[in-house]
Amino acid sequence: MTTIADYGKYETAWCPGCGNFGILNALKQALVACELAPHQVLMVAGIGQAAKAPHYLRANVFNGLHGRSLPAAIGARLANPELTVIAESGDGCLYGEGGNHHFLAALRRNLDLTILAHDNRVYGLTKGQASPTSQQGMVTKTQPHGAFASPFNPVAVAVTMGASFVARGYAGKLEQLSGLIAAAIKHKGTALVDIMQPCVSFNKLNTYQWYQEHCHELPEEHDPTDREQALKVALEFGERIPLGIIYQTERPLFEEQFATLSKGPLARQEVPRQELQQLMQRYA
Amino acid sequence: MTTIADYGKYETAWCPGCGNFGILNALKQALVACELAPHQVLMVAGIGQAAKAPHYLRANVFNGLHGRSLPAAIGARLANPELTVIAESGDGCLYGEGGNHHFLAALRRNLDLTILAHDNRVYGLTKGQASPTSQQGMVTKTQPHGAFASPFNPVAVAVTMGASFVARGYAGKLEQLSGLIAAAIKHKGTALVDIMQPCVSFNKLNTYQWYQEHCHELPEEHDPTDREQALKVALEFGERIPLGIIYQTERPLFEEQFATLSKGPLARQEVPRQELQQLMQRYA
Amino acid sequence: MQQDIQILIGGEAGQGLVTIGQLLGKALVRAGREIFASQTYHSRVRGGHNTFAMRVGAGPFAAPRESIDILVALNAETVELHRPQLTKRALIIADAAFAPELPGAIAVPFGELGPEKLWNTAALALLGQVLGLQEQQLYQAVEATLGQKKPELLEENQEIMKKSREWAKAHLPEHDFVLADATATADSTQKRLLLNGNQAIALGALAGGLKFCAFYPMTPSTSVVLELITHAETMGCVIEQAEDEIAAINMAIGAAFAGAPAMVATSGGGFALMAEGISLAAMTETPVLTVVAQRPGPATGMPTRTEQGDLEFVLHAGHGEFPRAILAPGSIEECFTLTARALALTERSQSPVFLLTDQFLADSARPVTPFELNGITPVRPGDDPEKVATPYRRYRLTPDGLSPRLLPGLSEHLVVADSDEHDEDGHLSEDYGLRTAMVKKRLQKLELLKEEVTAPTLEGDQDALLLVCWGSSLGPVREAAAILRDRGLKVGTLHFSQVWPLLPEQFLDLLQKADRVVGVEGNATGQFARLIRRETGFTIAELINRYDGLPFTADFLLERLETQRAETGDR
Amino acid sequence: MQQDIQILIGGEAGQGLVTIGQLLGKALVRAGREIFASQTYHSRVRGGHNTFAMRVGAGPFAAPRESIDILVALNAETVELHRPQLTKRALIIADAAFAPELPGAIAVPFGELGPEKLWNTAALALLGQVLGLQEQQLYQAVEATLGQKKPELLEENQEIMKKSREWAKAHLPEHDFVLADATATADSTQKRLLLNGNQAIALGALAGGLKFCAFYPMTPSTSVVLELITHAETMGCVIEQAEDEIAAINMAIGAAFAGAPAMVATSGGGFALMAEGISLAAMTETPVLTVVAQRPGPATGMPTRTEQGDLEFVLHAGHGEFPRAILAPGSIEECFTLTARALALTERSQSPVFLLTDQFLADSARPVTPFELNGITPVRPGDDPEKVATPYRRYRLTPDGLSPRLLPGLSEHLVVADSDEHDEDGHLSEDYGLRTAMVKKRLQKLELLKEEVTAPTLEGDQDALLLVCWGSSLGPVREAAAILRDRGLKVGTLHFSQVWPLLPEQFLDLLQKADRVVGVEGNATGQFARLIRRETGFTIAELINRYDGLPFTADFLLERLETQRAETGDR
Ligand SMILES: Cc1ncc(C[n+]2csc(CCOP(=O)(O)OP(=O)(O)O)c2C)c(N)n1
Ligand SMILES: Cc1ncc(C[n+]2csc(CCOP(=O)(O)OP(=O)(O)O)c2C)c(N)n1
Ligand code: SF4
Ligand code: SF4
Ligand SMILES: [Mg+2]
Ligand SMILES: [Mg+2]
Hints:
A: alpha/beta; Rossmann fold; C: Pyruvate-ferredoxin Oxidoreductase, domain 3
């Protein structure tokens, strides 16, 4: 049996009080709840404060480029369908830096993959510029008159795109969050958990208190399989921010296209030399 | 007064019967309807069959990189707010090749900009690979088992994102299409016209006949300012494909952030040397 | 030596000229002939002016010719455009409507032979008659190709072929293009393969153990992937069309990290987008093969033409410093062998490896002896988890710079890879000493690459005129040299099929010994010559460059050698 | 010469050490002192070990020192880490809780002086006392900085400064760091500017006529843009945070096409993503300035450290062949002047121009004489629409390769730009002859760039030891040379503030004449030395490289020169 201890304890480079700590703990709990041993898990991250999280966990890690966690995660999953692959990064990394393009493409594909977005609504590591999810009007050094563009709502776009699992969590609600992450990992398909995360150093608008005031759990009645209802809930993002599984559906898995993946990791499959010899004859 | 003749006549490199011809004609009509002279218009394109369109029109043209028409268009508009800037390209260019990321970012910004997407649901120029909008199951040389991913619905995503003008047209309905394009050009804000375009060479699924059978004009009652209704209509894309202005709203223009843009083209503004001399003193 | 025959089929995209060309090629190869087929096409789907050229005769050939002996004109424009290239003895097969008033013109009443969509088949049959190919041989080629895809069309094709043959027998003028049996040099009992460069690359990759390829379509690289997709299921490969080239390279790196020998294939602008990913592969020490099929730049440039203009870019692409290897095949055979080698090399060195080719090589086809698979060991990714020192450290510092590479999930060891500078465990570190050690470790792997450098190939004389070239220019350069040698001159060729790393001891003395060294490159600035100077101090003072979008030919080279000699006096 | 003083303030991110450093710097500069301030920091927001170093004395200085005279330790780790660097006479200002048992240690009871968040101000006051700065001078600096942003905090700051001063007066040990008046070399009536490299770049860009900048945040380039944003409204500039670097470069090109002198600023990975855009700028002949602030790679590397590792990448970035210029400032002054020049050059040549800097130069500050704006003519984009030949053709073929550049919408002429190969009108073309002409036209512009090359600067002796360097290494190299000269040796330095194009006639003879040529580069492989060999055939056989993430210092160079001389014998 896997325990929290198996996932180790590390010193972090995060600011004291940062929402990242809550997310890290929730993730560990979720992995334990899913009964996954560290070596079965591959964490794929981009670059940012959030993207350091996989270094603070005992697991396989691929810490790639800023904005490019998803393609790397997809590549790894297509090479070894036995791995539990979790892409974990910040809002800047997943929804900015071209990441958005990969985000939409990932949702369209629907591999068995979990996406954890530490959504602090700011670029933390680079010291506080607006991110795609920054609240309109947020003043930063690079947005002295306040962020102008309307914020990206990843949950609404994901539901619109027909993503197969869309949830929103909050770093300050550990139990619920770890439940959402566990459900996402167990879900067969691409699962997004967008996680509201206070950044105590740079986001002075969306603080713990702010989230406490704005976040509410979805009511029991919410039926995540009802797309229309889900879409309505997903568009709610202002005075009230709903938390929970917003949408869930079954869609064919991308991996199923590839017969060869039913035979396990590609690294373990022999090159069929005989077949190659034969198929070359087609060119004669 | 500007006439169709002012916009010239060119030999094209398109296949006979291609939907691009209809779009080109509709565009010319719309420009005339908007009473724009060629030199007031800047067409910005990426790369693809669709992206050749600006070469078949007398206007200013910036024909940039595959996937990157929108940033170039935005840059040009921010340099000269007196230009009518129209980004015109294919579905692969605007919704694939990282273009999607720029697409979402453009919608979030809301500059006064028109986006014309020749949506033939295939990569034409590179000979028939699936595009982000390809119908599921479409068999191509690179998708021998059929396109797997669920198609991108640009209209639905744009409405979800709160884009300020979202319309769908059809290359086979010239009058309606030119009306939509004219409305898009006149709209103050980023306007998307996603244009259903038959590709006679590579798209054997979505043919003129197919569109004839599937497309229908939005009923008179449709209120494009009603976001909820718009979203419902936008998600309709299957047996029935609605044409018309699906959503329209007023949002602040991105350009208004920059006081200097109220003074006209940047190229015509003097460098304020006196001010520079003074502000250097702040470092003393 | 009997003169070879250069056939050129010209017309619009969509007129089926590639089909004729391929069928004719197949038939000729099966009949034991030597051929060389190459293409030019426009960046459009219909219309424009495309050509399919085929050389037939006592080859083997490795380049097209500029002059034309048989012109098959599917439209009037073709006659106009290629008239200046016609040899004195040339035949022109063209519709009666636009056949020129020239001695060799054969005005064909295509309308009488069959419906317009089959005129290409008619032209094929006419060509067959001209060349003296047996009806059966040509029809079998049609059957083999069409039979699989559209059997229902076989009959009408057969009919028009018959009719055309008969017309030809009755109307063909005197000519000397019937292939004498003597020209069938190859042993026709051994089935040769008719392959173009991109097909050979795909087969080489499969033989080398490829398991994963991600791509975004881009001419002229796409056909490598098309070929892979055809065989993916049989060979157990996963091929994925990515949302862009950035995704493609990052997917390939993710897949390689997780144990799949992986590659990407792209061209100019697509490669530019991959530069950051290349740097990631280097930093994480993940093997990945990048096939770059060059076309003329900058930017979109000429998407369907050829150039060797990206050598320096590929050599330096990616920020930061790290070792790499660049292979540049000069022939169809090398496309196969070097691709397999490249896959092995990237795994062996845990460093990025490149295959640098171009539209000319990609699209030109030649018959080759079936490849020997026994000499090629498919890549076995990763090290044995039983044999690594524990605790396992992905970036353990070792004398040769190679650290044990385990694959995540395939043992209980944890594998941690990082794009930041990192410690031996793969966790990010900002320690100055560690930084120095890790830089040294990565650069040390250049030595491993140097151990396996393919030496340049010298052919002919060493001390008179030496033509230096790389990659796809090999064929035309060798042909020009052979012609000069026939004229009694002493000529050598030195061809690099690996352009990085360079080992001066393998070639510097040759450069120094020759009387006249001429660099031949399909670019405007002589990038390889600059690289030679950078690495050896030796200046290749005389260059022949071509950058109009077309490949070198022997004719082009001979002309340039002549004029340049005149210009530079008799030094 | 009185020895200068090296102060190092160390602590965690978030402890406010940069604030102290900047305030002290401001006060010293206003007092007419020479200083040199530099920083090291971790890629994190809180914690880690950061330092702010300041040299004070009879400068001017252009490099930090490795040894430390006054250590201000805001935490215990700082004492441990920097102990080995302390000079014999060193003072250590540290909290009583962790002050070491060393002769120069000053154990400060910070707790008694004020609340923890103001301890940095306390340390500042103590430093002031040590250096003999007047209370007023220091307080004015605090006022000038804090007064604008948080006037409500002024009082408590003043209070703790007072208290700390008093404590210092009572407890300071004997020391010799009081700045004698004689060291105030600069004319304190002339207000000098305290600027770091990135600030100077921003001011240079504004002076040069910049109107548009797009960026995506990336250390160490971001602060260039922060500076621009501060002045954007006043200067009538549009600065836009793009969704990624690809968008940034394409926006800048779009803006430049439409008439705004434009730049982007980025670093390693961000620049890699721009490579395709660079090629687009070249093909469309759109002027654009790219500022590349280097940091150690590959991949994410060490985001907050320094390196000169991207020269070759910047030189070759972008597919296809085209001319470019690369300027590499060696000082704060050059950051200003060369940025303005670069903007002019890109407009003049309609070709991409680069400014290559690095974290060291970006983050190090020095007082400079206010820049003379009269010598700089801001760029006037585009040509006069009244004066172009009609019909207007954007890519008209001309002898010097420059075509008339009109701006769309500013006249009735239509401007058509194309990333494909194109005709003179800007419409795509696949004509072979046109292709050749357009390639020649674009490459021809290299001659224009060559006419305006900034020659390398020679200082000192020419024929003995010659230290060759480029970009940011200038300061430390000059300092090392000065020290050697003081020791009676003959030493020269040759610094390139333009690294491309290179004109051998400007420097080759110097290299050939010197007895011992040593290349100094902040990278592991000697990229500039390779480039020199490529361009001249001359081999710089001896190199000093640094690639641990830290900048060169005179100490480092002297040590290496010594050991390398020993290793290579007395040649
Ligand atoms: C190509 C590239 N561009 C820019 C950067 C600089 N960069 C690193 S992290 C980051 C933003 C991080 O924001 P986010 O992903 O939201 O993470 P956070 O730090 O807020 O957790 C940026 C811009 C980079 N590493 N690579
Ligand atoms: C960076 C880059 N990658 C790939 C290409 C090749 N390419 C040119 S057009 C195109 C697709 C065009 O599809 P779309 O935008 O839908 O236009 P269409 O031809 O269908 O009108 C591709 C993949 C390119 N030019 N640049
Ligand atoms: S900067 Fe913000 S997100 Fe990053 S560690 Fe600090 S508090 Fe957390
Ligand atoms: S390929 Fe398709 S989209 Fe392109 S011109 Fe032909 S029909 Fe039109
Ligand atoms: Mg963030
Ligand atoms: Mg398309």
